[in-house]
């Protein structure tokens, strides 16, 4: 099939690369010329394991190309995917300006019978506005659909190839058949539904997962108060299949480009219809104060943070990515700096992004964890990178004067940390 993918962020680029790999002819289009230049040179604009190989392979075999020109990308496409960002606006609502701009730009070039799939996360009913915009610019017959994306950064390709389910929301039978054909090589149960339900599946999935994390973080506080071990408590409830083991890992709270914005957006469009989403609101509030809670645990041990040299391992919003959007590590650092602490930090992939987007943040960047340890009086783990899970505690004891290790991601073994001579402070254990 001939496909166009509008927007070359995580969702767009991974979708384009995977669908090209299945033998489709895919054109990725983006208004960002710098990004298209990078892609044309065979590089990925961000770090995602396995993505560069996929991009190179499919560009070499001419199944995948990139352009800033809609008139080149759209006219032959049987399916056009809209994969642009929907960030939060000042009121927490999803800002749809990129979705609308993309719709306006692609509309004049649509071919008869094309299916326009909105993959961007958009509030229920958005497709009706998209339809108005497209109808203003073309008399061609086309179909709208919603096929939400459930990939996680850091495992985006694997998640796209092997999702638990593929949700196809579309009102036309022919268009549904075409989308089923296109997704044939991808595993996972098919959920066939209407467009609005598909749009809500995306938001409620993210809100539910975010609620699981906040629930876990609340239980962690209870465990701190009663000296229980949250890891065992979560293992104990996770074995119940109705609850499930995933997303019960406590820490500094959820970050990234999706959960924080989607939770705010669902609250906003719930409010528009006067629906109180109290559980989801609670998840948001708990997440907002989780970093404060962790800092209060640090203060309980250190009494003051002023002038303390704090080593921070991890800046990305989670391991395996260079993405720092809504990273709890950065919120933690901002708060520690406000309290007068000095920050020495290392992250395997995300340091360049922090330097670029937060040039005023007073951080001394160091090339590895050892260098951080040598400079610091206490150590904080802020991101769950594998290399921090495997921290060599004997070496740490040898090269540093650190006494406290504050494990903001509960990734170290407290017994081993104590055996190596440190005081361990985790979340709820
Ligand atoms: C999330 C969803 O997991 C994807 O299914 C969805 O497609 C994506 O949002 C999206 O809407 O585009 P992502 O933001 O890449 O994916 O990252 P996650 O792995 O879900 O982690 C999100 C945050 O939750 C991270 O800060 C992570 O550290 C935190 N988290 C996750 C926990 O604190 N505890 C957990 O048990 C799991």
State which percent range the strand residues make up.
5-15%
Cα(first) to Cα(last) distance is 53 Å
Biggest sheet, strands in spatial order?
3-2-1-4-5-6-7-8
In this structure, how is the largest beta sheet organized? 8 strands, mixed
Helix content: 40-55%
Number of helices: 18
Unreliable spans:
none
Name the structural class.
Answer: alpha/beta
Please tell me the overall pLDDT. Answer: 97
Overall 3D form: globular
| Gyration radius, in Å | 23 Å
What do you see in this structure?
The protein has 429 residues and is α/β, with parallel strands linked by helices. It is built from 18 helices and 14 strands. The strands form 2 sheets. An 8-stranded mixed β-sheet has the order 3-2-1-4-5-6-7-8, sandwiched between helices. Strands 11-10-9-12-13-14 form a 6-stranded parallel β-sheet, sandwiched between helices. Helix 1 crosses helix 3. It starts with a strand and ends with a strand. 46% of the residues are buried. Uridine-5'-diphosphate-glucuronic acid binds next to helix 9.
